[in-house]
């Protein structure tokens, strides 16, 4: 991919300076209004302190290393995610139960344990956290590939041994998923904010390019492993293992170079000590016997780390809650060219070739959002841009749903006709989906303070995995192809619910949803 580094360097280093220098003069006194008292102005250029009048330019070598590390992490995660499905299908042919158990437990672990990961991200050394995520992810994938090879080749293993080995792959899948979340949240939600500092233009461009890498890996990673698996499952296992092991050192040292080039990423992990003091003072005031007090002191920190329930009230009461939960609701979907929708399309008459073509076109539209979203945000801000993108998504999904129901009476005879309208609406709606994703991400990055970015973002990830599980539950309840319209209705309902919640946020933040046209605004304002 061509990131046009020379152009981006000028944008990072010059555009923010020119915007600041051309902007109207502002008073130098700090703005003491809180988010609840006065919403932040999304259309203004970020105010910089007198000591640092201009944002520090981001070098091309820094962004190249950041993109390379993110690409390797995302590529291996996407490739193994699809590869595991194919490997399990080959090892346990004729049944979907092992795959269902594998996916459900993996998602369940992400829902329950993601907040604990977020607490560690906020409290720990940034480089150590990312390095642990890299090593943990690679070790889990390598061990899983080894077990998949044994299960595929050793057909004479006993039932108990096969079951035990498969259970071990599920545990490793949970580790891989949590390490993937740790890496993603650390880099996208924390490192990017610190690297760009007050340079909002640079942050939007970095967000867009990181998402572009995600979508690129989402398309090509599964495609590559699927093509190799079509020739030989054993070769596919070795390919997944080889790519996983060959990239670990590159990713490990590349991210370390980024860390060294940005001094602001260094911090001292003092939160654990502060929490320990608070916990000690709380237990000292109680009247527990000495043995019970010691037991409480040892168990309570462990429990709070595994299930940090204190993150939930902070998430629900945060000003960025509505954009975050709106984005999470969009994961409650069967209209994403994933397993559910692909299975339906094949059942109604689509061939694998046409499904692949539709998925490729959809990915092209998704990638286009990574160029459109920064432009829209620069022109009208992230808050207004979010409602525009969500409206775009809702309009096209409503059109696709209408076409689908109009042709549903003849679904058994001309299913391709009814499904094609739905496919077209879904493809066009993807621009709105990923445009809103980038707007919501930018809002969260701006609103959430440094000490709580990890906790907030991992609670968000838990809700995303929860709604994704609900989408699978909808197709379990309505499992026949001629019942697919009901999961589709549920999906569209979730999107409109997300739109309603985000509209509430926009109304609170801006005081209105839409601007009155200039031709009627004087009448509304009255005589001057």
TrEMBL record:
SUPFAM superfamilies for the chain: MFS general substrate transporter (SSF103473)
GO CC, alphabetical: membrane
Region (Disordered): 1-56
InterPro entries linked: Ferroportin-1, MFS_trans_sf
Record membrane topology: Multi-pass membrane protein
Biased composition (Polar residues): 16-28
Keywords attached to this entry: Ion transport, Membrane, Transmembrane, Transmembrane helix, Transport
GO molecular function: iron ion transmembrane transporter activity
Localization terms from the record: Membrane
Primary location recorded for the protein, binned into one broad class: membrane
Transmembrane segments: 79-96, 102-121, 128-151, 163-185, 219-241, 315-337, 344-365, 385-404, 416-436, 484-505
Recorded family membership: Belongs to the ferroportin (FP) (TC 2.A.100) family. SLC40A subfamily.
Function: May be involved in iron transport and iron homeostasis.
The name this protein goes by in its record: Solute carrier family 40 member
Organism field: Periconia macrospinosa
The organism's taxonomic lineage, starting at the top: Eukaryota, Fungi, Dikarya, Ascomycota, Pezizomycotina
């Amino acid at each position: 991919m061509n990131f046009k580094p020379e152009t981006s360097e000028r944008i990072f280093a010059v555009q923010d300076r020119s915007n600041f220098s051309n902007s109207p003069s502002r008073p130098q006194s700090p703005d003491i209004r809180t988010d609840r008292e006065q919403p932040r102005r999304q259309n203004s250029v970020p105010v910089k302190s007198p000591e640092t009048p201009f944002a520090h330019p981001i070098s091309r070598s820094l962004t190249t290393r950041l993109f390379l590390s993110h690409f390797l992490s995302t590529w291996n995660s996407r490739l193994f995610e699809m590869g595991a499905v194919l490997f399990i299908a080959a090892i346990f042919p004729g049944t979907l139960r092992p795959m269902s158990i594998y996916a459900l437990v993996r998602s369940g672990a992400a829902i329950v344990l993601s907040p604990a990961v977020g607490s560690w991200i906020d409290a720990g050394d940034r480089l150590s956290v990312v390095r642990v995520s890299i090593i943990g992810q690679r070790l889990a994938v390598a061990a899983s590939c080894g077990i998949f090879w044994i299960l595929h080749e050793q057909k004479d293993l006993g039932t108990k041994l096969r079951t035990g080995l498969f259970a071990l792959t599920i545990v490793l899948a949970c580790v891989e998923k949590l390490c993937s979340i740790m890496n993603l949240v650390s880099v996208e939600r924390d490192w990017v904010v610190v690297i760009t500092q007050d340079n909002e233009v640079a942050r939007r461009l970095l967000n867009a390019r990181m998402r572009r890498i995600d979508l690129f890996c989402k398309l090509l990673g599964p495609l590559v492993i699927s093509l190799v698996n079509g020739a030989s499952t054993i070769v596919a296992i070795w390919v997944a293992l080889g790519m996983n092991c060959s990239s670990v050192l590159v990713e490990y040292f590349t991210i370390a170079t980024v860390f060294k080039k940005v001094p602001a990423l260094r911090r001292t992990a003092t939160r654990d000590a502060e929490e320990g003091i608070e916990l000690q003072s709380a237990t000292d005031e109680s009247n527990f016997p000495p043995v019970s007090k010691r037991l409480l002191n040892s168990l309570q920190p462990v429990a709070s780390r595994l299930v940090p329930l204190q993150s939930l009230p902070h998430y629900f009461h945060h000003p960025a809650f509505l954009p975050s939960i709106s984005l999470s609701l969009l994961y409650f979907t069967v209209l994403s060219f994933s397993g559910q929708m692909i299975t339906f399309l094949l059942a109604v008459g689509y061939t694998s070739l046409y499904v692949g073509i539709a998925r490729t076109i959809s990915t092209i539209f998704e990638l286009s959002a990574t160029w459109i979203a920064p432009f829209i945000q620069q022109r009208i801000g992230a808050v207004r841009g979010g409602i525009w993108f969500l409206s775009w998504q809702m309009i096209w999904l409503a059109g696709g749903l209408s076409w689908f129901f109009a042709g549903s009476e003849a679904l058994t005879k001309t299913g391709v006709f009814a499904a094609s309208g739905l496919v077209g609406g879904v493809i066009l709606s993807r621009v709105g989906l990923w445009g809103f994703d980038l707007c919501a991400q930018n809002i969260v990055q701006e609103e959430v303070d440094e000490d709580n970015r990890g906790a907030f973002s991992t609670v968000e990830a838990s809700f995303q995995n929860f709604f994704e599980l609900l989408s699978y539950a909808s197709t379990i309840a309505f499992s026949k192809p001629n019942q697919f319209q009901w999961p589709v209705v549920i999906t569209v309902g979730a999107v409109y619910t997300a739109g309603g919640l985000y509209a509430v946020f926009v109304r609170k933040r801006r005081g209105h949803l839409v601007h009155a046209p200039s031709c009627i605004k004087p009448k509304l304002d009255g005589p001057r």
